[in-house]
User: Fold these one by one.
Assistant:
Number 1:
Amino acid sequence: MNPPRLITLITDFGLSDVYVGVIKGIIAQINPNLKTIDLTHQIPPQNILAAQFNLINAYPYFPPATVHLVVVDPGVGGARRSVAIELADGFLVGPDNGIFTGLLAQKPIVQAVELTQTQYWRVPQPSYTFHGRDIFASVAAHVASGLALSQLGDSIDPQSLVQLPIATPTQTATGYQGQVQYIDRFGNVITNIPGDVVKNQKWAIMLGKRSIPGCRTYSEVPPSQPLALIGSHGWVEIAINGGDAQFQLRLNWHDPITVQINGSE
């Protein structure tokens, strides 16, 4: 028998309440040998795009066959489907609301099912407000224990899985036009402009008439000064050396961002 698979957790539940602990309790009831890893429970409430951003950035760092349980579910109890998805190198469990968008665009889908077999839920009649507890945690534990997806429910066309429109940057005469796609807890503002387009270039972020220099490290500017760089995630990022770029530069999700290329290094 294969060893139990790892389960990762991404939610917007926060850490002030018992919700995360309850999820882990359900998993342990089904198989106490399963190991869970908390990726984050601090997704902004109902922010599906933030959840998919965190998932796509964490996914490559886990072994094949890891089960990724993602619960940011503003449509809980409504018409949206509950799904489990097998990729070539891992599994996804959660609501079919676009939360897997970025990953599904990158990875081949082996199979996808709608979770209709209630014997693998915690209870046959789940709460209308906590499918993370009553459906998804239980299903993730069964998948991590080796249950085939075909036993969990009805097969669905992978093309029918919800994928949200993700803005892509456009090339301009002087560089690239993009937008803010994520803001981390340090206030670093992460754009949707890939770092590859500014490598080996002299470049800057233009916020109105303000030019923020493209750098390699935070220390290239004095403390409290803004800079732009390629973050560890591979995207162009705006930061403050020792400060909060979102607050100091008054930036927010989806704000437009302009990269100006000033020639090769």
Number 2:
Amino acid sequence: MTSEDDQQLISECLAGNTDAFGKLVLRYQDRLYHSLMLMVKSPEDARDLAQEAFVHAFRKLDSFRGDSQFYTWLFRIAVNATISFRRKSARQKTTSVEAAREAAGIEPVDERGGVRPSSRMEVKEEQALVRRALSELSEEFRQAIVLTEIEGMSYEDAADVAGCPIGTIRSRIHRARNELREKLRILLKEPDE
């Protein structure tokens, strides 16, 4: 299942050429970071988790069987690191909803009306609202949407990464889309005049 190019780099790395793993890092670091950002909502935490995932993958590369894409395997490692991170964070402190929104970098939307922002600003505001709605989904639903809609993984790969049956992923995606649609409907509703 692994692409020939990825498999070649993995083989070279296992043969002692660590530069080959560096090429895998360069190939997947941005993609992994952006997906983790959607899951943890903190640039620093996303960077730390991505780095942790790559270090773990490097150490355990000999256990990679090639049954799935390398990135799918790497992403599963990152998801496990994220789960562990969240458990540690939950024990250390409880974060308010407002603090979580602030950490996500979501700016409040100006609903006063008046001069309409440029098209570019409208797009940024809509993207912020989508990120906000996504962040309000449960972790399971958010993960399912990130894996399939943003990462473009097949349902089979998403189920593998999430560690659940494919039917569960399908159900989570369906329910997540419905919840997301409702949250966006509320967030995008024009203020009453």
Number 3:
Amino acid sequence: MSATNDLLQDHIFIRRLQAVIEKCYTLLYEGKDVPFGDLIKIADMIEQFVDNFHHGKEENSYFPETEGRDHYSEEIRKFVLEHEFGRRIARRVRVHLEEFLQGRDAREPLARYLKTYSLFILDHTSKEDRFFTDVKEKRALSDGEEKDLKKEFERMKHECVRKSGNMAEVLKQLEKTEWAN
């Protein structure tokens, strides 16, 4: 699998997380409970997998490699700005989650920011999917560049798993919970 395909596969995983987030904020808006541990797992996945790992692969490796090709620099600049927007939403999710865990009335703002993050995921990944597909179709990266990026992604994956555990297993657990079904 190429580095470009690897990023597209990440988006499939991230949209699975989005579906869990959507179920979560819907229940919170309805006044129903979601286990605190699962709320923490969701926030951790947003921070660790989406931001640190996936956006890290894009910002630290893939985007610098593709930026000067085929007039991609403007699109990349927009994606990086959107990543920062996502980080700001994620910080608000964490703030309101901490308040909620401490027993404060933070259900509504937590649900609101989870919903905002969910919408961010859908919008952002769809735009990046078009970008990555264009890079693939135009063969903007050589096979060697794709291979080198893929090696770097594997190194980053091992580092992420070492620090945060297996996020794929965490997502599977969340998808199987009673509240998420």
Number 4:
Amino acid sequence: MKIAIGSDHGGYGLKEEIKRKLEEKGIEILDCGCFSEESCDYPDFAEKVARAVGSGEVERGILVCKTGIGMAIAANKVTGVRAANCRTVDDARLSRQHNDSNVLALGAGVVDPARAKEIVDTWLETPFEGGRHQKRVDKISGMEKR
């Protein structure tokens, strides 16, 4: 699996922790920045990750800012992206099972690092259920074409 990861300055520290954890698991990482705690604009990094996911360059993406909200909003502007801002393990599980989310947004200011790593693990390990949910995901994808 190849994952794109990105953050703004507020999420940089947590992004680096998550990146190390993923690399330890043997997951290939495309680091889309940022690369320090110097102030920067989150939409720039959300777009880089989202475009990598939307184009198929990577299978999934992870974004980190202070709340995860702005990153998810920005990423969802890119065709083919279903970004979910998850604050709990249940959010992560359901975003995969029911919505086939392909970008995970996390808030470094609202989720501690240990919980964030649990969320990432759950999100990576949970398959999409398909079935009745597929019709709904297809409707979401159809909205991008109108």
